[in-house]
Specification:
Helix content of chain A: 25-40%
Mean pLDDT of chain B: 92
Structural class of chain A: alpha+beta
Oligomer: heterodimer
Number of helices of chain B: 15
Number of helices of chain A: 14
Number of domains of chain B: 1
Number of strands of chain B: 0
Mean pLDDT of chain A: 89
Helix content of chain B: over 70%
Strand content of chain B: under 5%
Strand content of chain A: 25-35%
Structural class of chain B: mainly alpha
Low-confidence stretches of chain A: none
Largest sheet of chain B: none
Number of domains of chain A: 2
Distance between the termini of chain A: 37 Å
Order of helices and strands of chain B: HHHHHHHHHHHHHHH
Shape of chain B: globular
Radius of gyration of chain A: 23 Å
Distance between the termini of chain B: 12 Å
Shape of chain A: globular
């Protein structure tokens, strides 16, 4: 069932509202919602030709700036632009207040949880989170036991993935507290939209997003090692071939700090130094965009050439701060996600502000049984894969595929969780093929910084769009695009 | 500034400069040969050999028959060929990529644009009708890059290192061009014309974009002596070896702030080499051009090696 919108604007003529989903722009009668009215009027006033033109300009600007990501194919690496949609997503201040408070609450609870499981493990002793959830996790690092990171912070940078369900409420789908990426696109999207359609900003007062870098630097400086006066902060990247390299270079440039690779750093007498043209220079805080397993070949993966030999031992001495701390991955695991409401209550004695999606653990026999019998109604996810890989959506599978999924789950139940199919909300998105706006599913990634006595949520975020009709997976590696996201001022 | 990034920026400068000279050599030699005055100079095989000689891949067997399309493709667009223009532009961009946080957005975008231009240039079109268009575009794009380097970067040590790369490579390429055209002049001489045959010397000057200014300076037809003097020793000719040495000396001063130079420093070495050529006369060179070429190339390479040890190798 679908109904057309009440509009005569040519670029909205193929917009068909879909029943059963929350439409961000149009109400049930097909009229634009209050907050989008003005925007809809402005966009509707453009001819199709105008729009194609604007769209091409925005694209060329991304391409020439080299804001691209790489997709790993069979043999070759391809360079692609992150598709950008010119129709922004607007978030009302009252809605944002909840998101912001909820994101901080989750970050704080996760930080306390990490401290606990790497120290006394009270939450396990009290039976709130089962011990095997920790011990069987690949991301649990025994090296972190009893270690106190500078400033007491583990998850300095968190990316929280949210969706709006058919009930109109936000749900958290995932916490990302290893190396969440995407914040540079938030800034680029804003820049591109400002260039293409500056006039629209006269009608809406949106919060800026360019203050992320200064807050990141402030946060990094707050977690400086003991005894350091003015810390030397750097960004550590795996190198120019990494898919997020643009972001690494953007952050370093915007903070005015050095962008280093592992081979630029070395350890001597329990301190970390970088090799400059005038000799060694001490480094105090490292925002590392390299996964745990690669940061130090002495302590972790021994054949890693991306990291710095001896780095972890300096960290252990408290002479350098790593952002985020190693071993945070144990807490953003999709299996731990399901305990988040309990974790929040346990540490903060508060009700969770943001909703969690109900989750079935295939590791529990009764829940496993339900999952195996209802695969067609569920999304099945591997607990430890990033980037949308290995996710199956039940209602799109053939009988044979369902069988395959059942076999996979039976082979290693601990590896999988299942959730009801969430109905991601829809937003008007310009589609090349039809040369008009069509509804597409979206989510929202917010960025939260946690430092010593400081916290910050970027007022905005990355709205990701699944560009293929009906697709619910929004990751860029799966053909997703993004939108500028406006958080309106009160 | 990180030592690795300094090294990358040094090479970015070198690759930008290298692309420009290779493109110009192809352009000038190919198009001037079309109506060259003598048979040898007009022969396509002669021109193709000269191009390969200049890029450092000379053909030693005189009986080898060269395929025009293959040679042009190899020097311009063959990605697997270390001396191709596309390889140089690609390296320049890769080096710029690794220092994106240090260079200006304007410079980066211009490099990125050039890269996409070369990457998308169809090889068939180039070898059939696009040679002029391609080489002229490369030349202009590289000129834009150098303007962006001079016009948008902070003139600090980052700038000094890039400019060291640009000027060192310029000197090297000019010498390679002189060497290749000198060989051509020897080969093209017959009983009617001497080594002083002006045609090859004019081509040489055009390869260095210095023909008009040379005429203005000497008011004479180019011959071996005045051409070499202009391109090697004249400090006011922006493409001369002497000019490059002066520029190198200027930029190493920005990098090395010591008043009294350590005798083991790059700064000292550049000053020493520069002093040697500052007080040379062309007769010392023109009689033994081959020795000069070998000697100066070794000296320039020693500057590069010294820089590596002093700045890039912590």
């Amino acid at each position: 069932m679908s109904t057309n919108t009440n509009t005569t604007h040519p670029i909205f003529s193929s917009y068909e509202r879909k029943e059963g989903f929350f439409d961000e722009i149009f109400d049930e009668k097909g009229n634009p919602k209050e907050i989008y009215k003005k925007l809809f009027e402005i966009y509707g006033g453009h001819s199709i030709e105008d729009f194609i033109n604007l769209n091409n300009k925005a694209r060329a600007s991304f391409f020439n700036q080299g804001i691209t990501f790489q997709v790993y194919g069979d043999n070759q690496v391809k360079e692609k632009i992150f598709p950008f949609d010119l129709f922004p997503r607007i978030i009302h201040p009252s809605e944002w207040e909840i998101i912001e408070k909820g994101a901080i609450q989750r970050s704080k609870a996760l930080n306390l949880f990490l401290h606990d499981i790497y120290h006394d493990k009270k939450i396990i002793k009290q039976g709130i989170v089962p011990a095997e959830m920790i011990s069987s996790s690949e991301n649990y690092l025994h090296q972190m036991m009893d270690l106190d990171p500078p400033g007491g912070i583990y998850n300095h940078v968190s990316g929280t993935d949210l969706i709006k369900h058919s009930d109109g409420k936000y749900y958290v789908l995932e916490d990302n507290i290893r190396c969440p990426s995407g914040v540079s696109y938030v800034v680029c999207n804003r820049t591109a939209l400002k260039r293409a359609l500056f006039g629209v900003f006269n009608h809406y007062k949106a919060h800026t997003v360019t203050n992320y870098a200064e807050n990141l630097l402030e946060m990094m400086e707050s977690v400086k090692p003991h005894g350091v006066d003015i810390p030397n902060c750097v960004v550590l990247t795996p190198g120019i071939y990494n898919s997020a390299y643009y972001e690494h270079s953007y952050l370093a440039k915007a903070m005015g700090v050095e962008l280093v690779e592992g081979r630029d750093l070395f350890v001597e007498n329990n301190f970390v130094y970088m090799k400059t043209i005038t000799g060694p220079e001490r480094v105090d805080v490292i925002y590392r965009r390299i996964d745990d397993q690669f940061i130090d070949p002495f302590e972790f993966k021994s054949d890693s050439s991306l990291g710095v030999p001896g780095l972890f031992s300096v960290y252990k001495q408290g002479n350098v701060c790593l952002v985020n701390a190693p071993g945070t991955g144990v807490a953003d695991d999709k299996a731990i996600y399901t305990y988040m409401p309990d974790i929040i209550k346990y540490y903060l004695d508060e009700e969770p502000i943001l909703n969690n999606v109900h989750t079935y653990h295939c590791s529990r026999p009764d829940e496993l049984k339900y999952v195996l019998e209802n695969i067609d109604k569920l999304v099945v996810k591997p607990v430890d894969e990033a980037g949308g890989y290995g996710v199956t959506i039940g209602n799109r599978l053939t009988k044979e595929e369902i069988k395959n999924v059942q076999e996979q789950i039976k082979a290693s139940p601990r590896k999988y969780i299942a959730q009801p199919i969430m109905s991601l909300s829809l937003h008007a998105t310009y589609i090349d093929d039809s040369k008009s706006f069509e509804p597409r599913h979206i989510d929202l990634r917010t960025f939260t910084l946690l430092g010593k006595d400081t916290e910050f949520v970027l007022k905005g975020g990355l709205t990701r769009v699944a560009l293929q009709k009906g697709n619910l997976i929004v990751n860029s590696s799966q053909g997703g695009g993004s939108k500028d996201t406006w958080v309106l001022k009160k | 500034m990180l030592a690795r990034v300094a090294n990358n920026l040094f090479w970015m400068g070198r690759y930008i400069e290298r692309s420009e000279h290779t493109a110009r050599y192809l352009n000038v030699n190919y198009f001037s040969s079309l109506d060259a005055p003598n048979e040898v100079s007009q022969s396509r095989q002669f021109v193709l050999r000269s191009m390969l000689n200049m890029v450092g891949d000379p053909v030693s067997n005189p009986n080898t028959h060269l395929d025009e399309k293959e040679v042009l493709h190899n020097i311009s667009l063959n990605q697997n060929n270390y001396y191709s223009i596309i390889a140089s532009v690609k390296h320049a961009r890769e080096n710029a990529n690794s220092a994106r946080d240090l260079i200006s957005t304007e410079l980066y975008e211009a490099i990125n644009k050039s890269y996409h231009f070369v990457l998308n240039y169809p090889s068939d079109f180039l070898t059939e009708k696009g040679l002029y268009d391609f080489t002229v575009n490369i030349n202009e794009m590289m000129a834009v890059l150098k303007t962006k380097i001079k016009g948008t970067l902070l003139q600090d040590e980052i700038y000094a290192i890039i400019m060291m790369g640009v000027t060192l490579e310029r000197a090297i390429q000019i010498i390679r061009i002189i060497n290749a055209k000198y060989d051509d002049a020897l080969e093209a001489k017959d009983e009617h014309s001497a080594v002083t045959n002006s045609f090859e010397w004019i081509t040489l000057l055009k390869c260095a974009e210095s023909y008009d200014m040379m005429r203005r300076h000497y008011k004479k037809t180019p011959n071996n002596i005045n051409t070499l003097e202009f391109l090697i020793l004249n400090p006011n000719c922006p493409r001369s070896v002497m000019n490059s040495l002066n520029e190198l000396y200027h930029h190493i001063q920005l990098l090395d702030q010591n008043k009294y130079h350590n005798k083991d420093s790059t700064s000292f070495l550049v000053g020493k080499i520069r002093a040697e050529y500052e007080f040379k006369v062309i007769e010392e060179i023109s009689d033994q051009l081959k020795d000069f070429v070998e000697n100066i190339l070794n000296q320039l390479i020693s500057i590069s090696t010294k820089m590596e040890n002093e700045y890039f190798n912590y």
